[in-house]
Amino acid sequence: TKTKEQLSKQVDQLLQLNKQFDDAFWEDLEEILIMSDVGFKATTTLLERLRDRVRQEGCNDSETFKTLFKEELAALFPQPAKRIKPQPPEVVLMIGVNGVGKTTTIAKLAHRAHMQGQKVMVAAGDTFRAAAIEQLEIWSKRVGAGFYAKAPFSDPASVAYEALDTAQAEGYDTLFVDTAGRLHTNVDLMEELRKIKRVLAKKHPGAPHRTILVLDATTGQNALSQTKLFAKDMDIDEIVLTKLDGTAKGGVVVAVSLEYGIPITFIGLGEKMEDLRPFSGTDFAQALLDL
Amino acid sequence: MFDTLSDRLDSIFKRIKGQGRLDEKAIQEGLREVRLALLEADVNFKVVKTFTDRVRERAMGQEVLSSLTPGQQVIKIVHEEMIDLLGGSQEGLNLKGPAPRVIMLVGLQGSGKTTSSAKLALQLRRDNHAPLLVPADVYRPAAIDQLHRLASEIDIPAYPSTSEMNPVDICRDALEKARENGQDTVLLDTAGRLHVDEKLMDELARIKEVCAPSEILLVADAMTGQDAVNVAERFDELLDLTGVVLTKMEGDARGGAALSIKSITGKPIKYMGVGEKLKDIEAFYPDRVASRILGMGDILTLIEKA
Ligand SMILES: Nc1nc2c(ncn2[C@@H]2O[C@H](COP(=O)(O)OP(=O)(O)OP(=O)(O)O)[C@@H](O)[C@H]2O)c(=O)[nH]1
Ligand SMILES: Nc1nc2c(ncn2[C@@H]2O[C@H](COP(=O)(O)OP(=O)(O)OP(=O)(O)O)[C@@H](O)[C@H]2O)c(=O)[nH]1
Ligand SMILES: [Mg+2]
Ligand SMILES: [Mg+2]
């Protein structure tokens, strides 16, 4: 795309023209990062670290700079903790604001688990949004996963509880629980999430074993507030960043990582169930600057 | 974080002690704070630049008002310029021309098109129109089902499309049916798509050609970051948008995207989505959104009076 080419050209020129990495260079770099939603504060932090590294290593060519940049950025992203496989079924709870891609990401993760030979079930915990249950049901068929749902407007916690009951009885390896989109500022709906978590834990100690916050790469600085408020109520284990197939860079996860240190595990790159990749800090850094 | 903008500005001006007139140095420093606040509110970097230039020009050499601190005075100018940019007065839907009139909703995935089309249909019926909802998203699983459910919830007719049909055919035929059945407004709910997806963008152009909509509304999420300008620019280039619906505004997003989109396309923001229920839609009020982008509801009432 036009903007992408411009940006990558810009960086290349920046690196070629500015062998000495002067103030103008750092300012231009700052601009690029802010235009990628990294945010002013995180950009400042990142560039301070980078400046130190450049000085220390006496870096004066663009190739070395690219490597340093990738290293510094990748170092900001915490590695996911090694998890011990829980007593099955492993319960994965998907949360996030409206329309970010929770249901589609469940389909992608379920597909992945299914391909790895697991017996997978998905539970329609969004009983509120019109046809959310049907949407997940269609995905479950495409993926080849088990499906559990109750009637629209049922209590989501009871859906989660009964789905877990069925998954236990029928020997499933993994259960993905979908939830309705909700804004993090909606106190009642956040309480509803806590209730889902409580009933799952009661039925199966340790559940939900993975609580995944879905963030949309198109989102700007509000992702910080989303992470803060969802984390306050829910103990987030992982973040999945969706919609990276557009022109948005998702730079706000740099700020999110700096502030909350939650590992990013996967990225979404499209609307199909195959469009999921493990997150790599180096690749992300590379895409951020189109290096 | 943001309610301190006026504090920060005040402390700058105290330090500088600009007397009589707002002097250049004070304005420069003040505008740096404004710039930060706008970036934190997700206003696009380039838009921030042109915007603060405008403010600087107006502020330069202005007499200091006795009723305000210099910091407040800068905010007053910023606020006025912002309202001006966002569109001085509130604009509704264009419903002129012979019936049936077509309103087409477009935008990125998950922005709120389907929900907003049902919300608009409800509003239109309240204003004594006879709307027809048209599900034209044949791609996303259960998208058609979603609009049918919403339609039946508010008892408004929906065109019986299926995912085997072609979106352009759906829209053409629905318009024909509306004519036959005496429905005077047709709302086209299109599939979410990326502005860089040429095939799907072309589909929108063809729908436009066939249906000649009187409104083409970009539905954009209030939480959108810097990319809002790329998205709006591409949709506008291709379709010549007539307006914008900004969704999910009931949360704590500053909504800087509003300023970015308006400033890039010049197209008015007509409505705001403020919840998931179908009554949760409001007219767009530039003054309120300007205060919100600046993050300073209370102080502004004070400043407005001065
Ligand atoms: N381009 C792109 N679109 C995506 C991606 N992930 C999801 N989508 C699309 O985004 C839209 C919303 O996805 P959903 O999975 O329904 O999102 P959700 O978070 O479950 O939405 P709610 O349940 O309504 O809150 C759909 O049109 C998806 O096809 C992605 O990685 N890239
Ligand atoms: N909180 C809130 N949620 C909204 C608002 N408008 C829409 N939503 C929610 O956002 C999510 C996506 O809305 P949809 O109407 O399905 O969005 P869409 O643009 O049609 O999505 P695709 O067809 O997948 O591209 C749903 O969960 C809606 O309930 C709003 O104003 N506030
Ligand atoms: Mg969903
Ligand atoms: Mg839709």
Written description of the protein model:
The complex is a heterodimer of chains A (291) and B (306). Chain A is 51% helix and 13% strand. Chain A contains 11 helices and 8 strands. The longest helix of chain A has 17 residues, at 40-56. Chain A is elongated, with a radius of gyration of 21 Å. Chain B is an alpha/beta fold and 306 residues long. Chain B is built from 12 helices and 7 strands. Chain B has helices at 5-16, 24-40, 45-59, 70-87, 113-126, 143-153, 167-181, 198-211, 228-239, 256-265, 286-294, 297-305; strands spanning 101-106, 131-136, 185-190, 215-221, 243-247, 269-273, 281-283. A 7-stranded mixed sheet of chain B has the order 2-3-1-4-5-6-7, with helices on both faces. In chain B, helix 2 runs antiparallel to helix 3 (45-59), helix 4 (70-87) crosses helix 10 (256-265) and helix 9 (228-239) runs parallel beside helix 10 (256-265). The chains are: A alpha/beta (291), B alpha/beta (306). Chain A binds chain B through residues 1, 3, 31, 34-37, 39-40, 97-101, 128-132, 134-135, 137-139, 181, 183-186, 216, 218-223, 225, 243, 245-249, 251-252, 271, and chain B through 36, 39-42, 44-45, 108-112, 139-143, 145-150, 153, 194-196, 221, 223-227, 230-231, 248, 250-254, 256-257, 276. One guanosine-5'-triphosphate sits between chains B (107, 109-115, 137, 140, 143, 191-192, 219, 247-248, 250, 273-276, 280) and A (98-99, 129, 181, 183).
